[in-house]
Specification:
This protein is mainly α. It has nine helices and eight strands. The strands form four sheets. A two-stranded antiparallel sheet has the order 1-4. It is globular and about 65 Å long.
């Protein structure tokens, strides 16, 4: 495993996990999840710092290549032979990215020098993602394109990570609680009478045009939607029963109020 994780995988010269497709030297945001959690778990299982170091390095270096700080979201990929190509903000790639950071923070020692950096990046990503949530509670296939379809797997990943981050104390319940709740409300509309999860984009490559992403089909057989939806549901149960949070229904909306934040007063409304 050590040889496989640290030596055999194709990488950029700076050590970033990479692929040799669709161009000879390419980065995919998906590969945060395909590589980093395994490294993090090896760190937890062996206690060897080198695995944690590699996991943190990859999150931060992939972020340098792929993250748009103005939008707060990740482009799907990057090709070394055309680094200034148009950027395409595929939702599930962003789902993989935030899920990676969440899983890494779950096991990364808090005294690791990369811990505050990964946490800061997760917070920046969740803020950008939250700002792009649709009125249904779900997110679009292309995050910044409201005319692209609403996609389930990414929405489930976002809902899970936001709820989990609240429960772990990484982000503020007052800001993000109702966003997670809205995400779950949207996800419930995608579970049909047979228990199938609808609206999940099938497997998708790193493409060079929007037409490809817009026209990727959805399928109840696309397994990307099932695990994240189960994770989201389980984490929402924890959030709704979190003893540190008071959920108030005021003025036709939900407010997640930390129980130690002082009393609210609606007497003048």
């Amino acid at each position: 495993m050590q040889q496989l994780g640290l030596q055999k995988q194709f990488r950029l010269k700076d050590g970033t996990l990479a692929r040799e497709r669709p161009q000879a030297v390419s980065l995919w945001a998906d590969d945060m999840y395909m590589g980093v959690p395994a490294l993090a778990e090896m760190g937890r299982l062996t206690g060897k710092r080198e695995y944690y170091d590699d996991a943190v390095k990859n999150v931060l270096q992939m972020t340098q290549y792929l993250f748009n700080p103005q939008l707060g979201i990740y482009t799907h990929g990057w090709n070394a032979n055309n680094p200034d190509a148009p950027r395409f903000y595929w939702a599930r790639a962003n789902g993989w990215a935030v899920l990676t950071m969440s899983d890494l923070l779950d096991v990364l020692p808090k005294d690791h020098p990369g811990y505050p950096k990964v946490l800061a990046q997760l917070r920046a990503s969740l803020r950008g993602i939250a700002e792009l949530q649709s009125g249904t509670g779900l997110w679009h296939q292309m995050l910044d394109r409201n005319d692209s379809y609403l996609e389930t797997s990414a929405s489930a990943m976002f809902t899970y990570v936001i709820a989990h981050a609240i429960n772990e104390g990484w982000i503020n319940a007052a800001t993000y609680g109702s966003i997670a709740q809205a995400g779950w409300v949207g996800l419930t509309t995608r579970i049909n009478a047979r228990g199938q999860v609808e609206g999940t984009c099938v497997g998708t490559t790193f493409a060079s045009d929007h037409i490809y992403y817009y026209n990727r089909p959805t399928s109840v057989d696309a397994l990307h939607g099932y695990g994240p939806t189960l994770l989201a549901g389980a984490e929402m149960i924890k959030l709704l029963t979190n003893p540190k949070i008071d959920i108030q229904v005021k003025l036709r909306t939900y407010h997640y109020v930390p129980k130690d934040a002082g009393a609210t007063n609606y007497s003048h409304e």
